[in-house]
UniProtKB/TrEMBL annotation:
Record carries keyword Hydrolase: yes
Protein keywords: Hydrolase
Name the record gives this protein: Hydrolase
Any Pfam family: HAD
SUPFAM superfamilies the UniProt entry points to: Adenine nucleotide alpha hydrolases-like, HAD-like
GO molecular function: hydrolase activity
Organismal lineage: Bacteria, Bacillati, Actinomycetota, Actinomycetes, Motilibacterales
Gene3D superfamilies in alphabetical order: HAD superfamily/HAD-like, HUPs, Putative phosphatase, domain 2
């Protein structure tokens, strides 16, 4: 009664057992005692020498009798999906026969990683502990014992034999009326767990120089570092170069000032690196190498123990990210990534803390707008910067709201990407095209698919072998 309402199927199976054995089993009474392995229930109706025989019969009849009669409890499917959304594994530990439990889950489309059967109370705890479970959800007092034995958070749902008051009185850490409340609870639990992990990691650094691009991730990291270490043991640094979009440096300075930390703006010379100018798929590696080669000695001079970047868990899990590897190779730490914080969690925590960048659109460096293979030059970067500023102004003047906006440099023409909902209006607006051509592009097109982070990767050759 945690994920599924198994009572109709169990009652029907007991009825079949009664028919096969000639011994009447009260199905209603049996279903009121769900939780322990079936052998304990069989022992209520049959002599000891027949317990295993009848239990085996019950299990043999169960698949054809029970599975089709059983439905998911409200919120069960969404709860399984919530665990997966946070990168967790879904483990079902039950007193039921494991193959029968698996049949139910498959029938209802619940994708779980493992099913462990014939486990109850303390034995459940052992199974949970062996698998490193952090949270255990159940409806029985035996599930509380299991969670305690595994050192897991005990979440009780009042859909089984105990109501919410009884579960609270027993000592469950969290009590929910049903599983519909579990996804929201899990979201908050995971966020708080990861924020605590982040604080511990930052405290362990002792002091830190945050590579502050001005975007949501590095801004939140700076705020978190100040909370963990105090402003006197934190500084921010923004590399100043042609690849930095207009206004980003001023925004970074203002944020650092609001947090009471020193802000440094060392010049970076990625333009002097041939690999950066060549603009291959590894361009970000050359850029990040330059940034870290500048920031590491700067941190040492400032008496700061580490250099940290705003790489988050989503960044690390995405596709082509050579800059992340380059930063790691040069000793930079990535506390957000290591604490498991996703982009959405960074934005939510930023909103709660009042960090002004919580809803700031993604703002990668200007070089990310230049198609791979075209040389990155200060002139190209300046043209993109002018085009984006002019286009955004034109859209504001025309009353076309956009959040994400990019002007991609394809060489002889520009490709505009905006929010999918605004594509048609932007494509039909003469002032939009004029803003981009006025910045120095010969022609302009509006991408009908809308804004996509990392869309330049789509222009790379497919590395997979062809038949």
């Amino acid at each position: 009664m945690t994920l599924i309402d198994s009572r109709p199927g169990i009652a029907a199976t007991w009825a079949r057992v009664s028919e096969e054995t000639g011994v009447r089993v009260d199905g209603e009474l049996a279903t009121s005692r769900l939780g322990p392995p079936v052998e304990l229930e069989v022992a209520q109706w049959f002599p000891p020498e027949r317990v295993q025989e009848v239990a085996d019969l019950y299990r043999a009849l169960y698949p054809s009798t029970a599975v089709a009669r059983v439905g998911a409890l409200p919120g069960a499917v969404e709860s399984v999906a919530a665990v997966r959304r946070h990168g967790g594994r879904v483990l079902v530990v039950t007193g039921k026969h494991a193959p029968s439990a698996r049949l139910h889950l498959d029938h209802l489309g619940m994708a779980v990683d493992e099913v462990v059967g014939q486990s109850f109370a303390a034995v459940k705890g052992e199974r949970l502990l062996e698998r490193g479970a952090h949270v255990y959800v159940g409806d029985h007092l035996g599930d509380l014992e299991a969670a305690r034995g595994a050192g897991a958070v005990a979440v009780g749902v009042a859909t089984g034999p105990y109501d919410a008051a009884a579960l609270r009185a027993a000592g469950f850490d969290v009590v929910l009326d049903d599983l519909t409340g579990f996804p929201a609870w899990l979201d908050e639990h995971v966020l708080q767990r990861r924020l605590a992990d982040l604080e511990e990691r930052l405290r362990g650094l002792g002091s830190v120089l945050v590579a502050l691009s001005g975007g949501a991730d590095s801004a939140f990291l700076l705020a978190a570092a100040v909370r963990a270490l105090g402003p006197e043991r934190v500084a921010a640094a923004t590399g100043e170069s042609a690849s930095l979009a207009t206004g980003e440096l001023d925004g970074a300075r203002a944020l650092a000032a609001s947090l009471g930390v020193r802000h440094l703006a060392p010049a970076t010379a990625e333009q002097e690196r041939p690999g950066y100018r060549a603009n291959g798929p590894d361009r970000c590696a050359h850029c990040k190498a330059e940034l870290l080669d500048v920031l590491r000695p700067l941190a040492e001079a400032e008496g700061l123990a580490a250099v940290a970047t705003g790489t988050n868990a989503d960044d690390a899990a995405s596709g082509l990210r050579p800059g992340i590897a380059a930063a790691q190779d040069r000793g930079a730490v990535a506390p957000l990534r290591d604490a498991g914080l996703t982009k959405a969690q960074v934005r939510e925590a930023s909103r709660r803390w009042g960090v002004p960048t919580w809803d700031k659109p993604a703002a990668a460096c200007l070089a990310s707008r230049v198609a791979y293979g075209l040389e990155v030059t200060p002139e190209r970067l300046a043209r993109v910067d002018r085009a984006e500023a002019a286009l955004r102004s034109a859209l504001v003047a025309a009353g076309v709201p956009v959040r994400d906006l990019r002007v991609r440099d394809l060489g002889d023409r520009a490709r505009v990407e905006v929010d999918a909902a605004a594509v048609a209006r932007v494509a039909a607006l003469p002032a939009a095209a004029e803003a981009v051509t006025g910045a120095g592009f010969a022609a302009v097109e509006v991408d009908p698919r809308g804004f996509r982070s990392g869309s330049m990767h789509e222009l790379l050759p497919d590395p997979r072998p062809r038949a």
